[in-house]
């Protein structure tokens, strides 16, 4: 998606540890006009999949997921919550996610009330790096018995293994910008 790539080149800042900081338009301040275009692009890619629900993970996925849901005729958005309690109850689906940016492990939970076998789920997230967040969300969809139609990712770091690993299992992953390499002085995209 050309508009997104231009925005990354203009405003993205490469930080230590292979972290791309895009706080000015995605992860802190949010460029809603850009989000709207991102939502339309995800719709174009998944419009034939009869999506009934969008699943994302707090916090940064939520804004993108909500704007995307508007393109899908306002289908519901469910976000996986990062659980702080040790006792996880029976009425939630749960999985463990390793945070790429913080390095710690968190249990994420989704209430069984909001995802079930009748659903056709599109997962949306801001970044794909090693794939732990996406794996966690896929596991939750599988636990619920719902059908996973695929995942829509805003920025995939293609030089990290998550995207290729998950695609190799036959799961459809559509990323709007795939970064092939990045350093302080240059950033390149996969075509
Ligand atoms: P993964 O689980 O695929 O290793 O990492 C994905 C999650 O880590 C995303 O939900 C995102 O919050 C965060 N993340 C991974 N890489 C980056 C990055 O380069 N920049 C930012 N801002 N977040 C990232």
Give the key terms.
single chain; 191 residues; alpha/beta; Rossmann fold; eight-stranded mixed sheet; two-stranded antiparallel sheet; 34% strand; binds guanosine-5'-monophosphate
Task: Give a quick rundown of the structure.
The chain is of the alpha/beta class. Helices cover 31% and strands 34% of the residues. Guanosine-5'-monophosphate (5GP) binds next to strand 2, strand 7 and helix 5.
Descriptive account of the structure:
With 191 residues, the protein is α/β, with parallel strands linked by helices. The protein has a single domain, classed as Rossmann fold (3-Layer(aba) Sandwich), CATH 3.40.50. Helix content is 31%, strand content 34%. The strands form two sheets. An eight-stranded mixed β-sheet has the order 5-6-4-3-7-8-9-10, with helices on both faces. Strands 1-2 form a two-stranded antiparallel sheet. A hairpin with a 4-residue loop joins strand 9 and strand 10. The longest helix is centred in the N-terminal third of the chain and has 15 residues. The radius of gyration is 16 Å and the shape is globular.
């Amino acid at each position: 998606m050309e508009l997104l790539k231009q925005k990354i080149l203009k405003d993205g800042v490469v930080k230590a540890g292979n972290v791309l900081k895009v706080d000015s338009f995605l992860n802190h301040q949010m460029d809603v006009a850009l989000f709207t275009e991102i939502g339309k692009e995800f719709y174009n890619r998944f419009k034939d999949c009869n999506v009934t629900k969008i699943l994302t993970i707090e916090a940064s996925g939520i804004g993108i997921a909500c704007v995307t849901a508007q393109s899908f005729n306002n289908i519901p958005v469910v976000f996986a919550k990062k659980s702080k309690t040790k006792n996880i109850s029976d009425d939630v689906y749960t999985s463990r996610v390793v945070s790429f940016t913080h390095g710690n492990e968190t249990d994420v939970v989704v209430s069984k009330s909001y995802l079930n076998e009748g659903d056709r789920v599109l997962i949306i997230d801001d970044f794909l790096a090693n794939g732990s967040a996406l794996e966690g969300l896929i596991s939750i969809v599988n636990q619920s018995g719902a059908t996973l139609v695929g995942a829509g990712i805003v920025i995939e770091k293609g030089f990290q293994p998550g995207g290729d690993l998950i695609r190799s299992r036959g799961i459809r992953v559509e990323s709007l910008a795939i970064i092939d390499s990045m350093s302080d002085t240059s950033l390149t995209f996969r075509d």
